[in-house]
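Field notebook, page 538. I keep forgetting to write these up properly, so this time I am using the form the group agreed on. The chain and the ligand, protoporphyrin IX containing FE, are recorded exactly as supplied. Prediction of the bound pose follows.
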Amino acid sequence: MDSFVRIWKSYTTHIFLYFKSNMADYQGYIILFITWLVSTIVVRAILSRKQNKTNRPPSPQALPIIGHLHLLAPIPHQALHKLSTRYGPIMHLFLGSVPCVIASTPEAAKEFLKTHETSFSNRPQSSAVDFLTYGSQDFSFAPYGPYWKFMKKICMSELLGGHTLNQLLPVRRQETLKFLRLLLQKEKAGEAIDVGGELLRLSNNVVSRMIMSQTCSEDDSEAEEVRKLVQDTVLLTGKFNASDFIWFLRNWDLQGFRKRLKEIRDRFDTMMERAIEEHQEERKKIKEEGSGGEGQIKDLLDVLLDIHEHENSDIKLTKENIKAFILDIFMAGTDTAALTTEWTLAELINHPHVMERARQEIDAVIGNGRIVEESDLVNLPYLQAVVKETLRIHPTGPLIVRESSESCTIWGYDIPPKTQLFVNVWAIGRDPNHWEKPLEFRPERFLGEEGNGKGQLDVRGQHFHMIPFGSGRRGCPGTSLALQFVQTNLAAMIQCFEWKVKEGNETVDMEEKPGLTLSRAHPLICVPVPRLNPFPPM
Ligand code: HEM
């Protein structure tokens, strides 16, 4: 078999060389191309027949070249859910030439993410992410190993751990108040607001200030620039790129991705260079004054620059590592939290009795003399249940994506190394074997009032019935920040305003659109009507 593959490879190389030197001979080119394609398909079919002798999970019939790609339209997590009802909780697919395994129930997810966690602690690379992160120099896509562990430690001790989150509470509070003020202004001007757009602005400002102090949010044009960058990046990385899946297109860029990626990375690079320069100037000033910067809270960029400049650091951080890490946090942390808040408000508008109960709880605990704060959240169990119910039905990371680093056997099925894993979080939250009337929005199911054992269910990856933040060592490090952000801002929005949708519409539609994160197909446009003025005259 090996010598057969060697001969075919040399044949392929010769055809390409011939093609290169005879570009003008189109007819010859077409004949040669078809010969090459057919021979290649035959060789791959022979090889895959050999591979099929291993015990792979059930799989639908694949097409040549594209495998099962055509079955994922229009929205991959929905299409995979439908397929799993036919082929079972563990399925095998080929996306183009890439082998994949799909886990669609809590039991299957636990097998991959807990029992076989060590084999599935890597993430697959894509050409877009590789390019944007300066050749995969980031954290979210770094293979599990010493570099990832080092960055995870920094992430938890300097950005997303309890101590830093407490220190940065005033930043989040200021941004929430700024957001509420903006809602009031819009209402006074008689303007409707795009709820998702404004929430994205808010989450972006919070994350920018945590990472780089004021740098990105000081003036509106800079904040706008970061927001646009995050949006463009999420959009482009969520698009299907044929060269990631169709092996003979690997080095071709038929969809013109590279140009757009380069434009985004150049914009990001300019912004980061400017931020680094400003930070370095400030650090120099502090050194010269000899004040040591006492009393100042370091932002993440300062911490990363400390490590970059430290001669004896365990791991040497390059400037590219720093930039790529910051891009990761923007990408993972801003869109997801804003979208979750938007989906929750949409559900509340469609379920007025739930909105009323949440509001009564807030009024009873906080009264109408002040605005709800993060420290009130422990006393708002119904509000917490409302957010959990949203994360169950609308998980903003609908598919957890990992890759196997070694071969393993799960439920008797052979999973080879370099197999992509998709855990369908969206399907798990709607599994009728675990959730009574799964499509109904009923926060009460999390209050222990129904005797269903879901009262104590937490969302941090211990209970596989609901894993909106993933699970295990590669689970989401931003869970605490995300929950604080969503719950506090949602509570303030329903404490201070009634939410009216366009005249004539009592409800809002809940259609999804395709993408890396779970977005609404139609923006949520509302008029906020004040019910409590959060800024009474002094
Ligand atoms: C509601 C909001 C959020 C949701 C639903 C969410 C969900 C997720 C999910 C499903 C994963 C993959 C987990 C896995 O593979 O097991 C993840 C990873 C990650 N999230 Fe979040 N996330 C949210 C907010 C945040 C925030 C606010 C940040 C930071 C500011 C953040 C930073 C990250 C990072 C850095 C990773 C990659 C971790 C790694 O590869 O080790 N996320 N998130």
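OBSERVATIONS:
- The chain has a mean pLDDT of 88.
- The longest helix spans residues 257-289.
FOLLOW-UP: compare against the apo run.
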